[in-house]
Amino acid sequence: MRLRRLLAPALAGLPVLALLIGLGTWQVQRLHWKTDLLARIAASEAAPPQPLGPAPQPYRKVVVTGHFDYGREALLGVEVRGTALGAHLLTPLLRSGAPALLVDRGWVPLERATGIERPEGEVSVTGYVRPGDRRNWLSPQDDLAGRRFYVFDPEAIGQALDLPATAPFGLVALAPAGAPSSALPAPAQHLPQPNNPHLGYAITWYGLAAALVGVFAAFAWRRLHEPA
Fold it and tell me: Distance between CA 194 and CA 176 in Å, rounded?
């Protein structure tokens, strides 16, 4: 009879326990994925750039040659630096025998007193491969007419810029050695360094699962020792 009094609380707590353990396990999987990603980024940072292939790994440091199409420049995102509001300058790089590549040449202020460097002729750009973003219901609406984009979707941006074909990934330009810091656009200085909080998240979820088991054990002990 006393054990039957624990049946309803146990059935109520089991789904919660399963959810907490599932969340902890998911964070462990995310931890392994992020650790591997950070290791690949570190190796790419230390290695010389490789020629861009047709299907490069994300965040691989590469070098690519082509001609910038300045007539189809666009702005991506919103970023404040100091007191200046700006965005990242996207410029298609036209390549012989390959789809156009959207290059994030760096940050530019929306209001600027100095000009933007636009090298003519064939250029070689060193940078890292940026995968496309996924749009969701929280994503802001792009301004197609104003060429202002807030989600890096190469296919959608390429269509809006009237490019015949666009690579399904982008390139974030890296600043060459000795480049002046005041030059515009201001390219990235190094590869991204994503944070890796998943171990703490896993400990939290598993800790809550252990706490739930402890609370139920204490509850069960009291119920089993109550007078009939």
Answer: 22
Q: What is the pLDDT of residues 112-143, one digit of tens each?
A: 767 889 999 999 999 999 999 988 888 889 99
Cβ(125)–Cβ(62) below 8 Å: no
Distance CA 206, CA 160 (A): 46
CB-based contact 17:212 (threshold 8 Å): yes
Q: Count Cα atoms within 13 angstroms, Cβ side, for 168.
A: 7
**Distance from C-alpha of 49 to C-alpha of 126, rounded to nearest angstrom:** 7
- Find the range with the poorest average confidence among 38-47, 107-116, 146-155: 107-116
pTM of this prediction?
Answer: 0.81
Residue 172's Cα: distance from chain center in Å?
A: 13
171: Cβ–Cβ under 8 A, 6 or more apart, which residues? 52, 62, 64, 93, 101, 102, 103, 104, 125, 127, 128, 129, 130
